[in-house]
């Protein structure tokens, strides 16, 4: 029983706790990739491997464990398995870029995928707690390692999200040289010379009065 619980946990972690977050990172790094590219193929294989491993974990739990569905871990797991296959089917019907259905498809696919990843991470924590209760073994180390992994992926995602902006800032700041006071005065003088001369307000008023 303990070995089955361990294998089930490893399958669930590798599918929903590792491959799915990595897939999200790849999507973020290749938002403009289209079908047929290397990154698109890698992303497809990662998604399919994740779905197959999650399915294997689900089959193992249904065959070897008591499934009364009276706890959060089992209920979340059942909902996740259904959502994963719905997400996979949605992925096969992706419209090509330029079609008006693409925006709606992208929104649904993105929201469902994000929800699956978040709920999957939460369910791994509930699974670690269930592992501790069932086997009476400490799950503190695994919880700590998984938290470190999720934190690293989250930080990397945020950095990746701002990478282009950070790179542009570095280029701009690297090309700028400090401006001295004399150079600043010259720039101001040049700006004054380029500005058109504004007519005097009093002169215009008198001119309009006597015209």
Describe the 3D structure.
The chain has 211 residues and is an all-alpha fold. The protein folds into 2 domains: 2-170, Up-down Bundle (Four Helix Bundle (Hemerythrin (Met), subunit A)); 177-210, no CATH class. Helix content is 81%, strand content 0%. The chain is built from 8 helices and no strands. The longest helix is centred in the middle third of the chain and has 35 residues, at 101-135. The radius of gyration is 30 Å and the shape is elongated. InterPro entries: CYB561D1/2 (IPR045150), Cyt_b561/ferric_Rdtase_TM (IPR006593). GO terms for molecular function: heme binding; metal ion binding; transmembrane monodehydroascorbate reductase activity. Keywords: Electron transport, Heme, Iron, Membrane, Metal-binding, Transmembrane, Transmembrane helix, Transport.
List keywords for this structure.
211 residues; Four Helix Bundle (Hemerythrin (Met), subunit A); 2 domains; 81% helix; 0% strand; disordered C terminus; transmembrane; membrane; transmembrane monodehydroascorbate reductase activity
The main sheet comes to: none
| Poorly predicted regions | 205-211
End-to-end Cα distance, whole Å, is 105 Å
Number of helices: 8
**How many structural domains?**
2
Shape: elongated
Query: Cα-atom Rg, whole angstroms?
Result: 30 Å
Order of helices and strands: HHHHHHHH
CATH architectural group of the largest domain? Up-down Bundle
Query: Mean pLDDT, nearest integer?
Result: 78
Q: Looking at CATH, which topology of the largest domain would you report?
A: Four Helix Bundle (Hemerythrin (Met), subunit A)
The proportion of strand residues reads under 5%
